[in-house]
Amino acid sequence: MSTQHTITPQFHQLWPTQLMELTLPGHEMANPVLADFVLQANASRDDMTAQYLNDNIFMIDHPALQWLNQCCHQAILDYARNLGIDYDLDFAIQGWPNVNMKGDYHNLHNHPHSWLSGTYYIAVPDQSSADQFRSDLNFAAISFYDPRPQANMNAIRGDGQIDPEHRVQPQGGQLLLWPSFLHHFVHPNGVDMPRLSISFNVVLKWKKEYLPY
């Protein structure tokens, strides 16, 4: 707690929640290869998208997957550096593929027992032909929610805390990375073409250097 007294007000934005958005270089070449791999895997496995703990997709010896693994690894280091973490991290990345057909969605959830979570979007089909029978449908988007319960209850117009939701309309080639505690909701795919992505968790391997004091 600061005890310094100043005539000029000082403003502190407390408890920030960092969300990283990045378009990966080289995705134009990698995504068609990744799409073929994920669709073939989905055809050979029942309920693949829901069985995310069964396998780690990044352990498969496949050039496109190893490219993505390296990109995710660098993104995690960049994310940490932007937070001010200036020491070495030891972590594992555990990933799984997602195939969302028409009407598929992921309910509100977070990712326990992880430090960070992320999703790389291989293919996000154009949703302009989807049947918009409700004005509040946000096809193929992902929404993140303020982790502070009821933080917006007393907000007034112009207050940045008034909207508890941050919505992203992802595109193919885009990587999102966020704290695993953050609740998020994946809106339905509204068209016949599948939405393809690879999600992952970042699990820290414990080191005493992580202790805050």
Could you explain the architecture of this structure?
Helices cover 18% and strands 25% of the residues. By secondary structure, it is of the alpha+beta class. It has one domain: Jelly Rolls. The protein has a five-stranded antiparallel β-sheet. The longest helix has 21 residues, at 63-83. The chain is globular.
Helix and strand arrangement:
Layout: E1 20-23, H1 27-44, H2 63-83, E2 91-100, E3 106-109, E4 116-123, E5 142-145, E6 165-168, E7 174-179, E8 184-186, E9 195-204
Antiparallel strand pairs: 1-7, 2-9, 3-8, 4-7, 4-9, 5-6, 5-8
Terminal CA distance: 16 Å
Low-confidence stretches: none
CATH superfamily: q2cbj1_9rhob like domain
The Rg value, from CA coordinates, equals 19 Å
CATH architecture assignment name: Sandwich
**CATH topology (level 3) name:** Jelly Rolls
CATH top level class name: Mainly Beta
Shape: globular
Write down how many β-strands occur, each being a DSSP E stretch of 2 or more residues: 9
Short description:
18% of the residues lie in helices and 25% in strands. It has 213 residues and is an alpha+beta fold.
Task: Give the key terms.
213 residues, alpha+beta, Jelly Rolls, five-stranded antiparallel beta sheet, 2 helices, 25% strand
